[in-house]
Specification:
Layout (H helix, E strand, L loop, with lengths): L7 H11 L2 H10 L4 E2 H8 L3 H13 L3 E6 L2 E6 L3 H13 L5 H26 L3 H5 L5 H12 L4 E7 L5 H6 L3 E8 L2 H13 L5 E5 L12 E7 L8 H10 L1 E12 L6 H6 L8 H10 L3 E2 L3 E3 L13 E7 L4 H7 L1
Parallel strand pairs: 4-5, 4-7, 5-6, 7-8
Antiparallel strand pairs: 1-3, 2-3, 8-11, 9-11, 10-11
Helix pairs in contact: 3-4, 3-6, 11-13
């Protein structure tokens, strides 16, 4: 398929796939976020087999992308620019009054998901560091993070989803100022205790949203997203927002799990995604205007209780030092 145009047959196939009320509703929902078959079935109030048939037809036409994640399958709008443009055009001219009820039900699903995650974080906050180290040596990860971040000094470090503040206490002494954001007040209280115990007095801890940080663009020379993405409904959007904060010559570090099949982490620990491939994260970083390097791969020290373990990946990506000046000149 040409990246700039569709053949007549491809155009007809795509329009046929779009031209059905339920499928238009699905596309409208997927324009909000990636969703599983189960979630779509619930929002549309239709059976999973029926929804799956609609999804298969649109996936065959290239309008949406299917990606397995453990035992679940998620869907998102196509990353092919010409097909995504076609979908966006149709949705732009669509009178979506009928879809308002779908979006309200999606908001309800989101709210339930957020409430479950919030309750989980508030419950586990006192033992958060222990849970994070169930399968992988946290000490080894931290040594790798320190090496990847570099010695500094940094003007400003931003830690998104700071949790207990461990990344701040690990790297804060190398920075002139630090900012840590988290949605859990309980986590922020724990982070404040840890930061104070570490003797760091140039750290600001904020209640904030990783999708809309309200921090200035290009304002940090080191941005960290440590074990956060697998909880999010739209990790791609979080990476874009994190990259927005990276100053020219600055660096973004992402630490998360490689793809795995520990389904228990969904139910017991509110994980939405079971890890991320290097191809997926590197593509997001590239789209955000950063230059990623090959990730550091850290296999588990020992198997978990079901004879499985979690491999941790550490991605580092840099914003070219000349990107800002080139844009200004343009």
């Amino acid at each position: 398929m040409s990246p700039m145009s569709l053949t007549a047959d491809q155009t007809v196939e795509a329009l046929r796939a779009i031209g059905e009320p339920t499928r238009l509703r699905v596309l409208s929902l997927l324009s909000r976020e990636e969703l599983s078959v189960m979630e779509l079935s619930r929002v549309l109030d239709q059976s999973q087999p029926r929804v799956s048939r609609h999804l298969k037809l649109m996936a065959d036409a290239g309008l949406i992308e299917r990606f397995p994640d453990g035992a679940r399958v998620f869907y998102r709008l196509s990353s092919e620019l010409i097909l995504r443009g076609l979908v966006d055009t149709v949705l732009d001219v669509l009178d979506d009054a009928a879809g308002e009820s779908d979006h309200r039900r999606l908001d309800e699903v989101r709210a339930e998901r957020a409430a479950a995650a919030s309750a989980y974080f508030e419950q586990v906050a006192p033992r958060w560091d222990h849970i994070r180290s169930l399968y992988v040596s946290e000490a080894a990860i931290e040594r790798a993070v320190e090496r990847t971040a570099g010695p500094g000094p940094f003007e400003r470090i931003v830690d998104l989803g700071t949790g207990s503040g461990r990344m701040l206490t690990l790297l804060g002494s190398r920075a002139r100022t630090c900012v840590g954001l988290d949605l859990s007040h309980n986590m922020l209280n724990i982070a404040r205790t840890h930061v104070a115990e570490a003797g760091l007095d140039k750290v600001e801890l904020r209640h904030g949203d990783i999708f809309a940080t309200r921090l200035p663009a290009a304002s940090a020379d080191l941005v960290i997203v440590h074990q956060v993405l697998h909880y999010l409904n739209d990790p791609h959007a979080a990476v874009i927002e994190a990259a927005r904060l990276v100053a020219p010559g600055g660096r973004l570090l992402i630490i998360d799990f490689a793809p795995h099949e520990l389904e228990s982490l969904r139910d017991e620990h509110q994980h939405r995604r079971l890890g991320f491939s290097d191809e997926e994260v590197s593509r997001w970083l590239d789209e955000a205007g950063l230059e990623p390097t090959a990730p550091i791969v850290m296999p588990p020290d020992a198997a978990g209780p079901d004879n499985s373990g979690l491999t941790v990946l550490i991605w580092a990506a840099t914003r070219p030092a000349q990107s800002h000046s080139k844009k200004s000149a343009a």
